[in-house]
Design brief:
Elements (H helix, E strand, L loop, with lengths): L9 H6 L4 H12 L5 H22 L5 H13 L8 H8 L3 H14 L3
Length: 112
């Protein structure tokens, strides 16, 4: 299974700078021989969300509605509904607080 092109970009740099365990936690999902199509779907949704957050942050003046939607998905929606950020992190056994910290750090470092 190949690594998603999203994580060959700035998103990879944003998430794997500080804590080496983040990288291993993420790629452990890819290494599993038993990853099923549902896990792959949730991983793709999470990756796309991270990518969208970064891209919409950079262009937030022109895409405020889109940025607000993705911000809400990560930070405001505490739901456990199927497809929610919390549901996906729980399903994949990913620490959502590491993602929160990485996104917050990205915003702080790119607040221009």
């Amino acid at each position: 299974m190949s690594i998603s092109p999203i994580f060959r970009s700035e998103a990879k740099q944003t998430f794997f700078n500080d804590d080496i365990t983040d990288q291993y936690e993420y790629f452990d999902i890819y290494k599993k021989n038993t990853i099923d199509s549902i896990e792959q779907l949730w991983l793709n949704v999470l990756e796309q969300g991270i990518y969208d957050f970064i891209e919409y942050w950079k262009k937030r003046e022109n895409n405020l509605k889109e940025f607000n939607e993705i911000y809400q998905w990560f930070f405001k929606n505490k739901s456990e509904e199927i497809g929610s950020f919390n549901f996906i992190c729980n399903s994949l056994n990913i620490n959502k607080y590491k993602i929160y910290r990485a996104l917050s750090k990205f915003v702080k470092e790119n607040n221009n």
